[in-house]
Amino acid sequence: MVMDFILQKSELRNLAEKVEAGQRLNTEDALQLYRTPDLNAVGRLATMVSEQKVGNQASYIVNRYINYSNYCILSCQFCSFSRKKRNDDGFELSVEEIVTKAKESLKLGITELHIVGGLHPTLPISYYTDMLKALKAVDSELKLKCFTAVEIYHLARISKKTMPEILAILKEAGLDSLTGGGAEIFEKSVRKAIAKGKETGQEYLDAHRAWHQLGGRSTCTMLFGHVETLEDRINHLSQLRDLQDETSGFTGFIPLPYQPENNSIPVTHPPTGNDILRTIAVSRIFLDNFDHLTAYWVGLGMKLAQVALSYGADDLHGTIVEEHIFNMAGADSSKGSTEASLKKAIIEAGRIPVQRNTFYEPVRERTGKSPEAPNDSFSESVLKNNLASA
Ligand code: SF4
């Protein structure tokens, strides 16, 4: 890694030298990265780190989101997605409906289904295991990335199992990866203000640790830009870095900018473009034991996500097809993208696009039965149908 001219001249020279020497940054260093006025210098340092890990490549995944239900027994203050049974816009899908969506999406060439929902008041554990088994029966190579940590605790509760036991049961039924959602900010006072009743930060980490100990891998997140301080963010990153030291089970980190609409948190200054890019860059530099950092285009908007590829991100996430959670919270990005759009965004950013799988590995040719080849005009038409029916 060779420090460039911008960094040699910047006030970040001391930190750049540390990074160049392979030394880990501490929390004071992270605060300096947040407070230095020169955003471009922070971005340069993040790019230096990213290039060392992945060269000039940036990845994307061809995937689909499915929310099995938005009914939830909790009422997290920041959540615009959940509904009670009395609400007339609540929904729940049968296993058959989920399988139909999966079959439709296989024609797009998806390699992953990303499935989450609220904490449903009455669905039994067999619903979840039947869903996983039915999807694996459709295509055994399709990766199932499902459930947030709080859903895992909910499923453990309703089935009277321990959290590690329920993870083992779900793995046996076909679960390939946990999702990273629900981390929010680990600090207790912040959690109380935005997600009262949810699992603690420690419980989130425990669930991911237990999953990693079973041989599983997962992503992790941070919801930022609401009522937390910079110190809370850095403390959050620090705890993720510690767990990664212990298990090496995280495949990537996904910072999520808070979306301010349709919820009850009084946030007068939701994250700006500057804050989002800086948080991505600081995370990339600080999380030295993470291989990948995703710019989640649904939360950032595709244009800012594309710029984030020059601020430490090396992944644009996926085609998604049908996003509800961020859109119900006011994100003005579309509900899905095509593979062609993701590739175009990456190429325009000066990077080499690489299709990845759930574990951020390059997609290789599938064995066994092959799905119909992905076709961009077909992708566009499915996307339009979804947008029309959403
Ligand atoms: S964030 Fe999750 S757990 Fe909280 S209310 Fe929304 S769906 Fe329920």
What does this structure look like?
The protein is 45% helix and 12% strand. By secondary structure, the chain is of the alpha/beta class. It folds into 2 domains: 5-43, no CATH class; 55-389, Alpha-Beta Barrel (TIM Barrel). The strands form 2 sheets. It has a 6-stranded parallel beta sheet. A 3-stranded parallel beta sheet has the order 8-1-9, with helices on one face. Strand 3 (112-116), helix 6 (125-138) and strand 4 (143-146) form a beta-alpha-beta unit. It is globular and about 60 Å long. The termini are far apart. Mean pLDDT is 91; it is low at 368-375 and 377-390. Iron/sulfur cluster (SF4) is lined by residues 72, 74-76, 79, 81-82, 118-119, 150, 198.
Offer a quick outline of the entry:
It contains 17 helices and 9 strands. The chain is of the alpha/beta class.
